[in-house]
Specification:
4 helices; six-stranded mixed β-sheet; mainly beta
Length: about 325
């Protein structure tokens, strides 16, 4: 949605075609993973809110009493789930005031759908559900709990799935409720990871690019978490390159609160507007950045992390060789 708004503003200002400025990709997919703009089917929305069933996450609050961002969500968004770990989420089932029957039984499953390029489809057998789900007319007392268990051999990366809830409204009417799910499996330290990344033009990380109202960001940002080892590591080094050796790839390191810890975007070449001074990052000449692992009671400075922290690595195809296509990044995470 943000990209679409930017493309409309800029195309109108410059007299350009939005489809040329920001070519569509993965346009058949719309969902929690952010590809495409969300669309509402009005008849289905009206049925759900009046004579059908609505599913959402229950109220949850922070220590100061404010609602958490996870409250009242029609989706299940998680951060990192390590191999061999699991998570659960409760959902409220609210029956509309005009339901024909007093209650509606709700059957739960996971849709066997494909996902956007670069996103793993979480297998159906990773999920389980509490039994006996139902919703009552005019009540939010119905509920169920969804659980996901990630196998020990799960590949790192972003995962998505869609929970399907079928509500029997009586009279032969069945309502389909889709609940998007998203989570990330961390990449281990000492592991290499490859994946597709898309860009339509050169991203300008110079002061000129940042001063531009549109930010001059033309790359999708692919991300994966990594957990800082609890011991045995003084430094973590992140290395990125283009598998084909022709494009300029970059990596940003963010902490769990969204603050940048370090990145490969800091060289003199990145300070030249328009990316004209950037050279390809290849296996022999990669982009590299590192962070220092300091004592857990130490105050963190820029470029420092604590043992046990969760870091988010964000990949950027800064200067693509083949714009408007997917290229392949290669990311290496090493400890010393």
């Amino acid at each position: 949605p943000v990209t679409g708004l930017i493309s409309s503003i800029k195309s109108n200002r410059l007299g350009m075609d939005p489809k040329t400025l920001f070519p569509p990709r993965n346009d058949a997919n719309v969902g929690v993973t952010g590809q495409g703009a969300g669309r509402v089917h009005v008849p289905n929305a009206l049925l759900a809110s009046t004579a059908g069933v609505v599913a959402y996450t229950p109220v949850s609050r922070n220590a100061d009493g404010t609602l958490k961002t996870s409250a009242y969500q029609p989706s299940w968004g998680l951060n990192d789930i390590g191999p061999g770990e699991g998570a659960s989420q409760a959902f409220v089932l609210r029956g509309g005031p005009n339901m024909v029957d007093d209650s509606a039984s709700v059957a739960l499953s996971v849709l066997p759908e494909g996902e956007a390029l670069g996103v793993h489809a979480a297998p159906m057998d990773w999920f389980t559900f509490s039994g006996g789900a139902s919703a009552s007319r005019g009540s939010d007392g119905g509920s169920f709990t969804a659980s996901v268990s990630v196998p020990a051999n799960a590949a790192p990366g972003q995962y998505a799935a869609t929970i399907l809830a079928l509500a029997d409204l009586g009279g032969g009417v069945t309502q389909r409720i889709r609940i998007p799910v998203q989570f990330f499996v961390p990449t281990p330290v000492g592991h290499d990871l490859t994946g597709p990344i898309w860009a339509s033009d050169v991203t300008d990380y110079s002061i000129v690019g940042y001063e531009n109202p549109l930010g001059q960001i033309y790359t999708d940002w692919s991300m994966v978490p990594v957990r800082v080892p609890m011991g045995g590591a003084n430094t973590l080094t992140f290395t990125v390159w283009d598998e084909a050796g022709g494009s300029t790839m970059d990596v940003f390191v963010f902490d769990a609160t969204g603050n940048e810890v370090n990145s490969t975007v800091g060289t003199d070449a990145h300070m030249v507007p328009g990316g004209v001074a950037l050279t390809p990052t290849s296996k022999d000449s990669p982009g590299t950045t590192s962070v220092a692992v300091v004592a857990n009671d130490a105050t963190l400075n820029f470029g420092e992390v604590h043992a046990g922290d969760v870091l988010w690595l964000v990949l950027s195809n800064t200067k693509p060789t083949h714009p408007t296509t997917f290229e392949m990044y290669h990311l290496s995470v090493a400890a010393s």
